[in-house]
Amino acid sequence: MKIINGNLTAEGLNFAIVVGRFNSLITEKLLEGAIDCIERHGGNIDNITVVRVPGSFEIPLIAKKLAKTKKYDAIICLGAVIRGSTPHFDFVANETTKGIAQVSLETEVPISYGILTTDTIEQAIERAGTKMGNKGFDAALTAIEMVNVLKEIE
């Protein structure tokens, strides 16, 4: 039996991070977590490109453009969609999720999902570095592992 596992080393890897500015109190903490993860796993900060976009809805387009350049081993998508009193939350969350998945499948570049979709600002804060960890860190860790899994398969 052969089992393929991706290791968790970011040494020599190039990353793009697409981060939404909307809810920047949250997204900046996610960004800090992602960069911290890459550095802690042997990555070089000079191999990270950060692209800021207005909000989560705009992330898939930029992720696709970045993936098509073939400059990046993985793309990390970070945003925060917090439920309000209208159905806007559902539309943005659903379309952002579908778009990110589609980009990954079309380009075959690992695209990690670090979009928070929460009911309250408190839940978002908990997931951006307090008691629920930092989901930006988790998204970067997923990206690192996926790059290495793909290398093992190829």
Automatic annotation (TrEMBL):
The record lists the catalysed reaction(s) as: (2S)-2-hydroxy-3-oxobutyl phosphate + 5-amino-6-(D-ribitylamino)uracil = 6,7-dimethyl-8-(1-D-ribityl)lumazine + phosphate + 2 H2O + H(+)
Q: Do the record's keywords include Membrane?
A: no
Cite a single Pfam family from the UniProt record: DMRL_synthase
Gene Ontology cellular component annotations, sorted alphabetically: cytosol; riboflavin synthase complex
Q: Which GO terms describe its biological process?
A: riboflavin biosynthetic process
**Which family is this protein grouped under?**
Belongs to the DMRL synthase family.
* Subunit structure, interactors included: Forms an icosahedral capsid composed of 60 subunits, arranged as a dodecamer of pentamers.
Q: What is this protein called?
A: 6,7-dimethyl-8-ribityllumazine synthase
Q: Which organism is it from?
A: Hydrogenothermus marinus
